[in-house]
Amino acid sequence: MTPKNALSPAGEAVGQPWLRDLAGLPGSAFLDALDRFPVGVLILDKSRRIRFMNRRLESLTGFLRQEAYGLPCGHVLRSAACVRGCPAAAGGDSPSLDTDLITRGRRKVPVRLSVLEMDAGPGQVFHLEMVEDISRLKEAEKRLAAPYGTGALLGRSREMERLLGLIPVLAQSDAPVLITGETGSGKDLVAEALHNASPRSREPFLRVNVSPMPEPLIESELFGHKQGSYPWADSDKPGAFTAAGRGTVYLAEIGDLPEPQQAKLLGLMDRGLAIPVGGSEGVKVAARILVATNRDPEELVRQGRLREDLLRRLGAMRLHLPALRERQGDVEFLLRHFLGTYAAALHKEVTGYAPKALRLLLDYPWPGNVRELKNVVEYAVMVCSGKLVLPVHLPQHVAQHAARPAAPRPAKTPGRSRRSAP
Amino acid sequence: MSARTLLVPLLRDNVAPRFDLAVELLLVGLDEEHQETGRQNVMLAHSSADELCDFILRQGVSAVIVGGITEEYYHYLRWKRVEVLDGVMGPADLAVTLFAQGRLAPGDILFARSDGHAA
To answer: What structural domains does chain A harbor?
Structure first.
């Protein structure tokens, strides 16, 4: 097989004696294998100039190997380690170190760098540098360490058990998933869980919330733009569908996507191509699409806010998050779970709820769902100075709820009639 | 064109690859004719992108030449009407000369590429 890199400047490395025969493999086969490696790889010469860069690193840094060839590594990789003390300069193999780099697209990405020294004969010292994107790992670490983090999807109710069982199954598919559920019920967490359980988990997960954006910005964010297509567009910019690579793009509120962009999204799903604003040629899209709404999607169609054909394409697989009040037993479980979390985070000795306070909390309808429950528990733990949360420690609107005449329960939950995957 | 002050974060003699990690700065004054009126090297006590932005605004810098800069600081400086030529790689002196001649663009690579034979 003729390696693609043989045609690029980086392919010149193939001609070097040390690469002509490597453990019985021709050098080109070695570089071809590195090209398919799932982490970024650089080969540096003795003066730490780039001789080879694999495809994964091209996509991570935004530089093509042709551009990077022959340049000092630190100026292309732009990692903090390059500035603070190049790990390859010390000589020998260096232990892996966690650092970050700035991409051509001006994004800071946490990476793990490992450098190996290769002695390829007299005076022929090369360095093999491996660069692994550890954004997902760092996010997970942050979530686990941060008491205020989003945490994982939690629940012991039958409804949640069913949902948690479906996630790993749906994660294996490339088809879009429509996630429905009231505000605060955890749609973002489900989207992340779908990505994390999928074979795409090492690729980017990009969440785009279109609600606060003006229409031109939405189009640019999703599909990218060409230089000069807007007054502020001083360079080409890839959209989320391109930037996600083989990862996942999550549109947080599909009901807020303007009609022209809905049509463009439909076109993207049909042809697998994203056409940037101001461009005429499409860019191939390999990302999976997840969308969410806190409204009834059929009602959005009836109101003319969502195209019916788009709903048919997006809604073939659906996941519905039940409202907290519908999750039998979960309120008490979550109250105890978050009490422990916040007591530890805030260094309090709160161990439980007084019966009256617990009754008030269990009777409360939780219109803001888990997000609201978390906030209420955090407030109660902060205010409580003893071991038990009393009614006086609860926010006024929760404590006074029992005194109010019964409010009508919210209408039928969106998408409830079709809560399952096909 | 009015007189301008140009700032180049440095890593040794080159344009620094990271705005947020730069501790050495080159300040260059240019007059209306794009002639250099003065140069000053400044050492910061420590690297900080926030403090560097403050420094740039306090010094009335009108253009910055740098390698990597994150979106947040890039847009902040642009919003403050500071021209940012990022993605520039190469010797700082050459970058300043080309800038003064109006021939420097974001993303320019000014390093000579070595021929690849390290031995």
So the answer is: 4-133 (3.30.450.20), 138-322 (3.40.50.300), 327-403 (1.10.8.60)
User: Which residues of B are less than 8 Å from A18 in CB distance?
Assistant: none
Judged by CB atoms closer than 8 Å, whether chains meet at B18 and A124 is answered as no
- Residue A201, pLDDT > 90, answer no
- Cβ–Cβ below 8 Å for B69 and A82: no
B4-100 under CATH 3.70.10.10, yes or no: no
CA A137 vs CA A82, A202, A216, A288: distances in Å: 22, 9, 33, 20
- What digits encode the pLDDT tens for the residues A284-303? 889 999 999 999 999 999 99
Which chain B residue lies closest to A124 (C-alpha atoms)? B119
Q: Does A227 touch chain B (CB under 8 A)?
A: no
Q: B114 and A69 in contact by Cβ < 8 A? A: no
Q: Which of chain A's residues have a Cβ under 8 Å away from the Cβ of B107? A: 104, 235
- Tell me, yes or no, if A19 comes closer than 8 A to chain B by beta carbon: no
Q: What is the pLDDT of residues B50-61, one digit of tens each?
A: 999 999 999 999
Which secondary structure element, helix H or strand E, spans residue A237, and what is its range? strand A237-238
Q: Considering only CB atoms, which chain A residues are within 8 Å of B118? A: 45-47, 49, 51, 124-126
Residue B23: phi and psi, rounded to 5, are -120, -15
* Contacts of residue A285, Cβ cutoff 8 Å, sequence gap at least 6: A241, A242, A268, A272, A273, A274
CA A265/CA A159 separation, integer angstroms = 32
Measured CA to CA, the distance from residue B90 to residue A244 in angstroms comes to 30
Give domain limits for chain B: 4-100
ipTM: 0.92
Query: What is the per-residue pLDDT across A135-180, written as a single tens digit (0 to 9) for each?
Result: 887 776 665 544 333 346 777 788 888 888 888 889 989 999 999 9
- Closest to B25 in 3D by CA, of B66, B85, B84: B66
Search chain B and give the residue with CA nearest A77. B17
Kindly list the residues from chain B whose CB atom is less than 8 angstroms away from the CB atom of residue A76. Answer: 89
pLDDT digits (tens, 9 = 90+) for A67-84: 899 999 999 999 998 888
CA-CA-CA-CA torsion sign (A382, A384, A386, A387) = negative
Q: What is the pLDDT of residues A328-373, one digit of tens each?
A: 888 998 999 999 989 988 888 999 999 999 999 999 999 999 999 9
Return the ∠ at Cα A107 (arms to A103 and A110), rounded to 5°.
85
**Any CB–CB contact under 8 A between A278 and chain B?**
no
**Phi/psi at B69 (nearest 5 deg)?**
-145, 140
A22 touches chain B (CB under 8 A): no
